[in-house]
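Students often ask why we bother encoding 3D structure as a string. The short answer is that it lets us treat folding as translation between two languages. Here is a chain of 176 residues written in the first language.
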Amino acid sequence: MKCIKASALGLAFAAAAWANPSPAGIPAALQPAAGESLATTVNAAGVQIYECRATGATPTGHAWTFVAPEAELFDAKGQGIGRHGAGPYWQADDGSRVVGKVKARAEAPAAGTIPWLLLITESTGPQGAFSKVTSIQRIDTVGGAVPTTACTRQAAGTLARIHYTAVYRLFSNQKD
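And here it is in the second language, the structure alphabet:
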């Protein structure tokens, strides 16, 4: 299968997003449920993977389709603490894991950037750092948007790995 590689985002973008999360600027639709409190904030750096696929929904008959994220998760000190991948899932190095489902989305403030999200989660791993997480906000995204290159019949099957960074705010029920 052919691959298209996007240029890497500068570390300055990632550092700026991680150092300045914007909880005050988060849209109301992305607020966690009543009774949930912020458990931790993690930073992600990785790629959003898209594939050029046949579709009847576009004039060319082909479109870029989101496949999966692949990212490393970091704590506030920049230490690796886990991975984020298809499902989507967030897994801590201790094996604890949650799988999310999009509850709400909002356009990111910057063009060419994946949307901000609120996801509800379910624990699918052993007890640990992420096992009590009940929802996740994805904010302060940089990059990761659908490729701007043409998706044509000749490009069908091509993968594009678009670099992105994001801040994930993990929430849990206060009673837990």
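Translate back mentally: Residues 3-21+35-173 form one domain. Keep this in mind for the problem set.
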